[in-house]
């Protein structure tokens, strides 16, 4: 049967990376909070939800951030910058995560205890590089949800990996276990984004 084009399909194809924003437009904080709550439905490794967010709305702070982010204009003109961070000590939240799942009736007590113990046993002994890779992967999953949800709410976004992560961590005094992953500018477009082509499927996929 042919695939019916849904609202999700529409949002996916209307979402473009916008770099020109109306600097006078401000998204209410309540809407930013709602956006992040909805985005946390994203999957994550062992459901440990390692994403953390620093939402920068203050104009002076955005101006400071612009120097860290390769002088990208949208850092200063977007309504907000959502910095998506990863917590490499996410396994320390295992007890809270799985206890809540148990209380909500999603898992039984045996599964709860197993998952708590297994999370500590597995993740606590991993090298920092491996933990960073895990939280970076999970941050990517939630970042895409943030951008799609933002578009559905009528806002535009652009993801930015072009910034000094070391300078960001130092400037915002991040703990050693909090890893900057991506910056997402969000706001009201002042100019349309460029369209972009995609590589043909037969050049990127093989079915066996």
From TrEMBL:
Molecular function (Gene Ontology), one example: oxidoreductase activity
Source domain of life: Bacteria
Residue ranges of every copy of the Nitroreductase domain listed in the record: 14-188
InterPro entries, sorted: Nitroreductase, Nitroreductase-like
Claim: Cell membrane is one of the keywords in the record: no
UniProtKB keywords: Oxidoreductase
SUPFAM superfamilies to which the protein is assigned, alphabetical: FMN-dependent nitroreductase-like (SSF55469)
Any coiled-coil regions, as ranges: none
CDD domains linked to this entry: MhqN-like (cd02137)
Protein family membership: Belongs to the nitroreductase family.
Record-given protein name: NAD(P)H nitroreductase
């Amino acid at each position: 049967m042919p695939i019916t084009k849904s609202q999700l399909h529409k949002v996916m194809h209307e979402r473009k990376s916008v770099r020109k924003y109306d600097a006078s437009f401000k998204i209410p904080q309540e809407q930013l909070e709602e956006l992040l709550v909805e985005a946390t439905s994203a999957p994550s490794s062992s459901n440990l939800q390692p994403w953390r967010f620093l939402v920068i709305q203050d104009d002076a702070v955005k101006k400071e951030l612009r120097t860290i982010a390769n002088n990208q204009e949208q850092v200063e003109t977007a309504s907000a910058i959502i910095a998506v961070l990863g917590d490499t000590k996410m396994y320390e939240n295992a007890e809270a995560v799985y206890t809540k799942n148990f209380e909500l009736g999603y898992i039984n007590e045996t599964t709860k205890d197993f998952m708590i113990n297994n999370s500590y046993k597995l993740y606590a002994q991993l090298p920092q590089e491996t933990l960073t890779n895990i939280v970076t992967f999970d941050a990517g999953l939630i970042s895409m949800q943030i951008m799609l949800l933002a578009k559905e709410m009528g806002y535009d976004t652009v993801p930015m990996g072009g910034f000094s992560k070391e300078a960001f961590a130092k400037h915002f005094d991040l703990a050693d276990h909090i890893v900057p992953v991506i910056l997402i500018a969000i706001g009201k477009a002042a100019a349309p984004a460029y369209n972009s082509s995609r590589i043909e499927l037969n050049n990127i996929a093989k079915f066996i």
